[in-house]
Write a structure and sequence with these properties.
Elements: E1 5-6, E2 11-16, E3 22-28, H1 38-48, E4 65-69, E5 71-72, E6 81-82, E7 87-92, H2 114-121, H3 137-152, E8 157-165, E9 168-169, H4 188-204, E10 210-217, H5 230-239, E11 244-249, H6 260-263, E12 267-268, E13 271-272, E14 280-281, E15 284-285, E16 290-296, E17 306-309, E18 315-318, H7 332-363
Antiparallel strand pairs: 1-2, 2-3, 3-7, 4-7, 5-6, 8-9, 8-10, 10-16, 11-16, 12-13, 14-15, 17-18
Helix pairs in contact: 1-3, 1-7, 3-7, 5-7
């Protein structure tokens, strides 16, 4: 199976299935000398972990990460540091109930990848969706935590939050309250209404979609001007998340109804006077905050009866049942952050040689 590796210089390969022994990631290209501990990675995994109530699945996975390679403590009592060698991360599955999926072995669930996997490979792991399961994102979050440690060395940070869920939108962007509610919403009043909507939809046996916004502090100069545009790379990274069905940057689709005079971000000696570009111009970061939004589809596993076909293309009706989230939000929040971190870490490493050359030339009076 191809397509399991992401990045050019900061390269990440994820592995594992929802109901396999475990899952994890191998990171190649992380520079040496960066402090990294299992506890640092665990803090990010806790935000994605299932079994915390609300809109999330009751599956109770501890998601304890182990660093198997790539770090070393050079002195007694010193910090655990990256060595520049591949970093291998492992997370064991502990609470997989595979028998719950026996009745789906020869049936294609609507909205899932069952039919397309079978069409491509002629075989699929039906237990929880196998490789297509959202469980795979635990490996991404672990790898994204490592990328975050690199970005912090350059005062770069990424924060995602919920701006819409089930048709209810946040009117405020008070980032101080994001961590104060379990939906990671920057509007406390909207978060309360979202919780009510979740309870309502849970009682109906249905699911919800929503919108996540990601804000990143990023220096100017990251990205490439043609095929590896930063906005294109970010869109690709975020669209690789199974529940994401759309990405917009800055003004996004609203730009289509603007005049050029409205959409252009005027520039003064003090900097940009607006940020309709979302912090990216000509595929290269401008120094303004990166502003990205993703559309998150409703979870396809619902308790309502649905029409589908079996492996013999015979019509059947199913109720998926099992333990599933009502919405990918809020657990998708750290996944979105991880994919943006991985993208920025990769482009940061691409830019550093250019900065080094420019500095060398300046030192020689060129």
């Amino acid at each position: 199976m191809a397509g399991n590796t992401f990045g050019t210089l900061f390269k990440v390969t994820t592995w594992g299935e929802s109901h396999g022994t475990g899952l994890g990631a191998v990171i190649d290209g992380c520079p040496p000398g960066i402090e990294l501990t299992e506890e640092m990675i665990q803090a990010e995994l806790e935000r994605r972990r299932p079994g915390k109530g609300g809109a999330t699945s009751p599956r109770k996975e501890p998601d304890r990460v182990r660093i198997m390679s790539g770090t070393f403590r050079p002195d007694d009592g010193g910090c655990e540091l990256t060595t520049g060698t591949p970093i291998s991360l492992v997370i064991m599955n502990k609470d997989a109930h595979s028998k719950s999926y026996n009745h789906l072995q020869n049936v294609f669930r609507p909205g899932h990848g069952d039919l397309t996997y079978q069409s491509k490979y002629g075989i699929r792991d039906h237990r929880g969706g196998g490789r297509a399961s959202a469980r795979e994102t635990a490996a991404r979050v672990a790898a994204g935590a490592v990328a975050g440690r690199l970005l912090a060395e350059y005062s770069m940070n990424v924060q995602a939050y919920t701006v819409a869920l089930g048709g209810i939108s946040a009117d405020k962007r008070d980032l101080k309250v994001v961590s104060e509610n379990r939906l990671f919403c920057p509007d406390s009043e909207a978060a309360a209404r979202m919780e009510e909507r979740i309870a309502e939809v849970r009682s109906l046996g249905d699911t919800l979609g929503g919108i996540v916004e990601i804000r990143a502090v990023c220096p100017p100069g990251l990205g490439e001007p043609v095929f590896d545009k930063l906005d294109g790379e970010l869109a690709r990274a975020l669209m690789s998340i199974g529940a994401v069905k759309g990405v917009e940057i800055g003004a996004g689709f609203a730009a289509a109804s603007m005049l050029g005079s409205e959409n252009n971000d005027a520039i003064s000696p003090a900097g940009f006077l607006g940020n309709n570009s979302g912090g990216i111009l000509a595929g290269i970061s401008s120094g303004e905050h990166l502003i990205i939004r993703v559309a998150v589809k409703p979870i396809p596993s619902i308790h309502k009866e649905q029409q589908t076909v079996n492996i013999d293309n015979e019509p059947v009706s199913i109720k998926v049942g099992g333990r599933h989230d009502i919405s990918a939000i809020p657990r998708i929040i750290p996944v979105c952050e991880a994919m943006v971190r991985l993208t920025l870490a990769d482009h940061l490493l691409r830019q550093l040689p250019i900065l080094h050359v420019r500095e060398t030339l300046r030192n020689h009076g060129v």
